[in-house]
Amino acid sequence: MSMSSPDVVIVGAGVIGNSIAYHLARMGPRVLVIERGDIAAAPVASWASAGGVRRQGRHPAEAQLASEAIARWPGLSEELEADLHYRQGGNLLLAENDEEAAQLVDFVREQHALGFHDVRLLDHKATHEIAPALDAHIRASSYSPADGQADPPLTTRAFAAAAQRHGATYWQRTIVKHLLVSGQRVTGIETERGPVAAAQVVLAAGAWSDELAAGVGLSLPIKTLALQMLLSTPAPSRLLEPVLGTVGRALSLKQLPNGAFFLGGGWPGDPAPDRLACTTRATSIEGNWQNACAVVPAVAQQAIAQAWCGLEAGSIDDIPFIGPAPELANLTLALAFCGHGFAISPAVGRAVADQLTGHAVPELDGLSPSRIAGFPQEQIKAFQFGVR
Checking phi first, is residue 288 left (phi over 0); if not, alpha (psi -120 to 50) or beta? Predict the structure, then answer.
């Protein structure tokens, strides 16, 4: 199939772009996906993600997508014909003192209001029954039993492979130079292989989306984040089933099938000036590790085997921009997932595919890029550059 004029061209082959490609391709449109590097390779977010499949703690604008995605994850390996290392071990949000335990009462009430009715408050005894490896000082928790974990690179590549089985074409190691515009309408893209005309363009290039958007006069209120991950040496397996978060600490902690502990939590690294790499910070490594050891003492019996960070786009209001770009026809944005796009990727792909094929998708209303106009330029500059 010639790709000189696909129906839809998707810029970016991360987990979001590939999920959109998969859902679109199986509906019939001709899809071309263009990725500047290899799929799920350093330093992109889909390579560096912590891999939590989390529903609780979501912004209300994401609640419907989160519920849909959680329902799909148990059958996703079979659907994509690939082992995603998915495990539904639940998610615990931990309280370490009475004040944090009181906060969880309101938190659980908020989860129920979002439709997450199986989320429940656990006391000290019930919390430690679910996660015996926790330190004794942990007082209480919010437990979301339907949550879990999966492998981000495997999932990202599985979506791509499934998209290709349904007819999508992929150009890897191909730079998109700029978007092509006629009047107020995006008509395609210019690549290092030449121009590509398309009826619809989806910008899902993560941290690198801002430059392409700026080329057509669209200023995105996003900034590049370098977020750190740590991997321990393997501990005895099955010490920890749920994924852990805490009310008062920057921490995401889970145990992989091989016994290694996987640590995240939003600890910063430093992007290279060209945004093609990033480096970790010694203070972030130390802080992340100490937090994990304080919550699960078994972590302290291991050593840090690997530390790395990946680049992603954070948005000004901590939720993604998904939907038609403001004032530019035929351009859809799917970007700035702020460290939590992986879990909802199955639902995002379905929703964007439906929207591109003319269906109403009210579950995307709260994430619409139309809200960009509501942020004053001074606020955007302060967010992006620390200007006060």
Answer: alpha
The residue whose two tokens read 């004053």 is: 376
**Residue 150: is it exposed, middle or buried by C-beta count within 10 angstroms (0-12/13-18/19+)?**
buried
Contact call for residues 264 and 227 (beta carbons, < 8 A): yes
CB 203 within 8 A of CB 209: yes
How far apart (Å, rounded) are the C-alpha atoms in residues 172 and 35?
Answer: 5
Least confident of 79-88, 160-169, 336-345: 336-345
CATH for the stretch 88-146+227-307:
3.30.9.10
227-238 pLDDT, tens digit per residue, is 999 999 999 999
Confidence at residue 3, expressed as pLDDT on a 0 to 100 scale: 52
Whole-number Å distance between alpha carbons of 58 and 43? 25
Q: Which sequence spans correspond to the domains of the chain?
A: 8-51+153-221+317-385, 88-146+227-307
CATH topology (fold) of 8-51+153-221+317-385: FAD/NAD(P)-binding domain (3.50.50)
Is 363 in contact with 333 (CB distance < 8 Å)?
no
Q: If you write DSSP's letter for every residue of 273-303 in order, what string do you get? A: TTSS-EE--HHHHHHHHHHHHHH-GGGGGS-
Dihedral sign (CA 369, 174, 33, 62): negative
Within 10 angstroms of residue 43's Cβ, the number of other Cβ atoms is: 22
Residue 339: is its pLDDT beyond 90? no
What is this structure's pTM?
0.96
